[in-house]
Design brief:
750 residues, alpha/beta, Beta-Lactamase, Glucose Oxidase, domain 1, TIM Barrel, 9-stranded mixed sheet, 8-stranded mixed sheet, 30 helices, 43% helix, globular
Length: 750
């Protein structure tokens, strides 16, 4: 009998299309079971989801069994073959399930006619979501291919089913005062991201308990037909947006709008709105009331995952009301608007920018590393501020935000508007400037220099190619982890890394293993709280302590790198011992992949990111064992001179123009040269046109940077004579005071 399991695994669009039918959450789950049953050609398919409060598995959908048991059949951990599959986190296949001593007979459920049994745990990273169960009347129906197919299907569905679980767990308004500030206002903030944005203010929240309100003197539709048209438009827009995200940002945005689609089809959300309208309330009041009801429920939940969905609810309210407007309007998104909100999760940032927000003003907390880096990759201007006045402005106020310098202008005067209009025009890179970038880079005395790109998202490859990077010197692998609600599976990571390697310019590809900790925290790891996270369980330390996560990532990288020049780099290595331990894990993964008969890169180059003073002191020993080293100067400066670069009180002390930093860089360059180990710089100073001459003088010939920095750095390098650069570097190494170093830079026009 034909089984289309391969087609089902590969077709994520089909799984996404299950949202397109207007149905509630239970209807969606029912469609999932019938679709899987049809593809796998089996007689029965059931979904059990884990109730986080009771700890029991609850039947939520079934095809081929008694549907009266939905919501009623509950299994304790380890109870029956289904409970055992989840407890052991392993797939169970039985040719005759009824004869297994652990089989649990449920009178009236209808399983007695089935023989073959397959139960696959649904896991989202380290979290248990539920179990997918398949059954067939024929004995010995399921084989090893089915096992692999169902495992992949469960992985694909994990995030969506987790969102469905959150909505199922909900089975069960006040208005904001008008804003006061209407006149011009200038607020100084913290720059995060880059660029300048102008637009109308949309306030998404002025307190943790905020309610939703679309303010303004606007005409809205008043009939149930108007509401249904708005709902249908919103569903269509979100479906289109999800499909667009799968193409443009599949690494961090896969199924990212699944909660939106589930809420729109859920009878307790859109259905309640319709009931209120049919009962005499206006569509506007009904939307606002139900959105606020869910915000209150989500905020009041003890489940942190549910709390994180508040922004999703606000997004939906915004779209529904925009689509309800009588006059012509944009496609329900944030076009022409600057969002003012409290701090956002990275996933929320992606959702808002994907909906064409011009820029964002975020209140409190400072510019965390992951938001800052992500904002630059997404090309969205963001300014942070701790000034509460930002929440006292009128909705639809004219805003200009300068994310280069950290300025927020509310209702700016004509002079400010003209000034920033000129800025925007001058910031654009012309086709002539692009065409002038050389394919290769040479100094004035014809010494070869290589310029590579640092990237964070798949979408960054466009700029890496545009600005003619000679390869990828650093791929920060943590963003697929930061964006998701749990650890991405091996298959999810494999697909990301494969696309990355296939689309990248040049031949060199350096994948850095997961670097979390410090100011890059995973929201789903709330049990790790440290007084000083920068010196705690981060980067390679975290991976060596959590070897299962480490192996999953390494296997995905090795598989994706089959047939390519793959380089794997470990962050925050403090000793040769760290490198030995990490290499042992790589060796184990290589053996496992060979055993499993999978295609993989058999000889990846293994490298180290030099970020700690201890690594500098043993640089020759590290270079003896490593295939390459790359200097992460952002952290190296921080750790060498003991300055938290994100702390405004001491940020002025953070400088690469420090004698200790220059001497450390010289030691690294010399140690790598002695051991004939490839060396590069991938921190921010690699793209600093003022420092590039000294770095070349110290002996560095390879630099990895933000792709947009390549043109200006290349122009600077073309004017540098390496002999003169070496003389300047030598002179600087003799300086013992920071002031002397800075004075030398100024006096020599560096």
């Amino acid at each position: 009998m034909k089984k289309d399991n391969v087609e089902l695994i590969c077709s994520i669009s089909e799984l996404s299309s299950l949202f397109k039918e207007k149905t509630n959450v239970q209807g969606f789950l029912s469609k999932v079971t019938s679709t899987i049953a049809a593809h796998m050609n089996c007689d029965s398919c059931s979904i059990f989801l884990l109730d986080d409060i009771s700890g029991e598995l609850v039947l939520e959908a079934t095809e081929g069994l008694n549907r009266d048991f939905i919501g009623k059949l509950r299994l304790k951990p380890g109870e029956g073959l289904t409970g055992q599959a989840l407890m052991d986190e392993n797939i169970i296949i039985e040719s005759e399930g009824l004869k297994n001593p652990n089989y649990k007979k449920v009178l009236g459920f209808g399983e007695e006619v089935y023989h073959s049994f397959l139960a696959a745990p649904i896991l989202s990273g380290l979290s248990k979501i539920g179990v997918l169960v398949l059954e067939h009347k024929i004995e010995d129906f399921f084989n090893i291919n089915d096992q692999m197919a169902v495992k992949a299907i469960a992985s694909q569905l994990a995030t969506t089913l987790e969102n469905a679980k959150l909505l199922i767990s909900l089975r069960e308004s006040r208005k904001i005062e008008n804003k006061r500030i209407t006149g011009p206002l200038h607020i100084r903030g913290i720059a995060s991201g880059s660029g300048i944005a102008t637009g109308k203010a949309l306030i998404l929240g002025d307190s943790p308990e905020t309610v939703f309100l679309e303010a303004g003197d606007i005409d809205y539709g008043e009939s149930i037909e108007d509401f249904e048209a708005s709902l249908n438009s919103t569903v269509r827009q979100v479906e289109d947006l999800q499909e667009q995200m799968e193409v443009e940002h599949s690494d961090v945005a896969s199924m990212i709008f699944s909660t939106h689609l589930l809420m729109l089809s859920d009878s307790s959300f859109s259905g309640e709105m319709a009931n209120m309208i049919n009962g005499g309330d206006s569509p506007v009041d009904s939307i606002i009331a139900i959105v606020n009801k869910y915000i209150t429920i989500f905020k009041g939940s003890n489940n942190p995952r549910l709390q994180e969905k508040v922004q999703d609810i606000k997004d939906l309210g915004h779209r529904l009301l925009r689509n309800l407007r009588v006059e012509e309007h944009e496609e329900g998104d944030y076009s022409g608007q600057i969002i003012v909100a409290r701090e956002l999760l990275p996933s929320e940032l992606i959702k808002i920018t994907a909906q064409n927000a011009e820029g964002l003003v975020l209140f409190g907390g400072g510019a965390t590393a992951h938001i800052t880096i992500l904002a630059k990759s997404l090309g969205v201007p963001i300014v942070f501020t701790d000034n509460k006045q930002i929440f006292d402005i009128q909705e639809n106020s004219h805003l200009i935000i300068d994310a280069n310098e950290g300025h927020i202008f509310v209702n700016p005067d004509a002079g400010t508007v003209r000034k920033y209009k000129r800025h925007n025009q001058s910031d654009r890179i012309s086709e002539e400037e692009i065409s002038s970038i050389g394919e290769q880079t040479y100094t004035a005395d014809k010494k070869r220099i290589r310029l590579l790109a640092n990237i964070n998202l798949l979408s960054d490859l466009k700029n890496a190619t545009l600005f003619k990077a000679e390869g990828i010197g650093l791929y920060r692998s943590e963003f697929p982890f930061i964006i998701r609600d749990n650890f991405p599976s091996e298959e999810e990571q494999f697909q990301i890394y494969k696309k990355l390697i296939e689309r990248a310019p040049g031949e060199e590809m350096t994948l850095r293993t997961l670097d979390i900790g410090g100011d890059k925290i995973l929201s789903y790891m709330k049990d790790i709280e440290e007084e000083n996270p920068f010196l705690g369980l981060r980067a390679i330390r975290f991976l060596l302590k959590n070897e299962k996560i480490f192996q999953t990532q390494l296997k995905a990288m090795l598989r994706a790198g089959a047939g390519s020049n793959l380089r794997i780099m470990f962050p925050l290595i403090s000793s040769v011992d760290d490198l030995i331990a990490a290499r042992k894990v790589v060796d184990k993964c290589l053996k496992d992949l060979k055993r499993d008969g999978l295609k993989y890169n058999k000889k990846p180059e293994i490298g180290v990111m030099i970020e700690l003073p201890s690594a500098v002191m043993v640089i020759e020993e590290i270079c003896e064992m490593a295939d390459f080293v790359s200097v992460g100067t952002n952290d190296l400066v921080q750790y060498m001179i003991g300055v938290d670069r994100s702390n405004d009180h001491v940020a002025w002390l953070y400088t690469a123009q420090h004698p200790a930093i220059l001497r450390a860089l010289k030691k690294i360059a010399d140690g790598a040269a002695l051991k004939k180990c490839d060396v590069s710089i991938c921190g921010n100073i690699a793209g600093d046109e003022k420092l590039i001459e000294i770095l070349i003088g110290l002996g560095f010939r390879k630099f990895s940077m933000n792709p947009a920095k390549i043109p200006e750095v290349q122009k600077r390098i073309e004017k540098i004579d390496t002999v003169e650069a070496a003389a300047k570097a030598e002179a600087l190494l003799e300086k013992g005071l920071v002031s002397e170093v800075k004075e030398y830079f100024e006096s020599h026009g560096i």
